[in-house]
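Quick start: load a record and inspect it. Here is Cytochrome P450:
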Amino acid sequence: MTPQPEVASRTIAFKEYTSYTAQAKFARFRQRFVRALKSIPGPPGVPLLGNSIELLRCDTTELHDKLVLWTSQYGPRIKIDVCNTHWIMHTSPELAEQIVTNATFNRKAKDYEYMHEWLGIGILLDHGPNWFKHRKALTEAFHFRVLENFMPIYQEQSEILVEKLLSCGGRAVDVFPVFKLYTLDVILETAMGVRCRAQENDSDYVRAVAG
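Running the structure step on this input writes:
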């Protein structure tokens, strides 16, 4: 059944109004952030999208170089505009210390909410009084006296790691898979008492865990 011209016209008008309203709300939402953060320097962006396009053009290496360039241009604290999100990036050790030692800032970013169903609400994802309760329960396990017992393991696995890197003969190497194997060796031996030798020997388990 073909809709009447008047009904079709009203439908189009409603869709246009809804689209305009959504865009206006998004623009007002962005404007609040822009005003609140205008005192923090950062690279200029395009309307609505901010720095998104510039960042999407970068691969992993280029992204790092881009962030280093921005901090050299705008200082140790910069803002990065990504659509409806503004990231505040700190590169100063003094600023970082103020953040990590202040209980006010121990709430995780909204990105972590995607892991709630997987990991539950524990020391990694919690905040506030519950986080302090879990952290206090684990404090003794991470005391310096306990960690000192693991120094021979750290040293042994680090020496294997260094030998693997030196064997590259100065060539460029992707360190990510190398460090994954090193981390797997250290975690398994310190936390579970199991020598995996992931850095030295290949196995189905190593491939499954390290990807």
